[in-house]
Amino acid sequence: MTMNKSELTPRPGIPPTAEEMVLANQxxxxxxxxxxxxxxxxxxxxxxxxxxxxxxxxxxxxxxxxGRDVLHLQxxxxxxxxxxxxxxxxxxxxxxxxxxxxxxxxxxxxAGRTMEFVQADVHxxxxxxxxxxxxxxxxxxxxxxxxxxxxxxxxIVSSLLRPGGTFYLVEFHPLLDSxxxxxxxxxxxxxxxxxxxxxxxxxxxxxxxxxxDGPPVQxxxxxxxxxxxxxxxxxxxxxxxxxxxxxxxxxxxPWKRFDSMVxxxxxxxxxxxxxxxxxxxxxxxxxxx
Length: 289
Hints:
Elements: H1 18-38, H2 56-62, E1 69-73, H3 81-86, E2 90-95, H4 98-111, E3 115-119, H5 125-129, E4 134-140, H6 150-160, E5 161-172, H7 174-178, E6 179-181, E7 190-192, E8 203-206, E9 222-225, H8 230-239, E10 242-250, E11 262-263, E12 269-270, E13 281-288
Parallel strand pairs: 1-2, 1-4, 2-3, 4-5
Antiparallel strand pairs: 5-13, 6-7, 8-9, 10-13, 11-12
Helix pairs in contact: 1-4, 6-8
């Protein structure tokens, strides 16, 4: 990105550009970082491990990682990134938030893990990483909604993979963001309340609340999210020259999104038996020919 944060002042009657919205998201995630570091949600005090963030099928799909070069795009605090290093991979995490990358480096050093963290917007990842190429690229669990153009993103992923390399995406299902409580806070029944598909532009949010526990976010509270249906994701990956090998859908989530959710396998959460079984998370594995 070529802009700086001083150029983000709203212009009455003029909608922000995609570049401006991405920079607003970057400032928002810088502001979220201290709240997340101190939260019980992330469990950085040792109450949660890196493995807690993974469904068992992810390790089956990824296979042996020892000695492989793994890149985790949009890694935030590196809580998941650490699991790749623990499994013997040469691991690099990349994120656009300077505050998050600083914390990720600190946490890795304190834990004695050998990992590298790079501060860069995912759209500038090839420039930040130079000629480096990877055997495995991993991303997801709240990453794609911050990307305005999946075609450009998928091309970047493909360019960073070695021939024969694996791209693995584990992301919240677009149906999940479409669901919401039917009425007030005491009504737990879920209904379709939001768009599943994109097409109406990004959703703007201006709130001091984040998805974790902890105090309100201070400073930059505005963020933008883009809707991406499953068809759009798969088409972007295929269009970038990658061959899709599998797509999974699961009713499990790594955190309690709705108050009505009950514990499931592996300490994760699912909707109660009174609700229909619907996909809340999906995984996609593709390889570079």
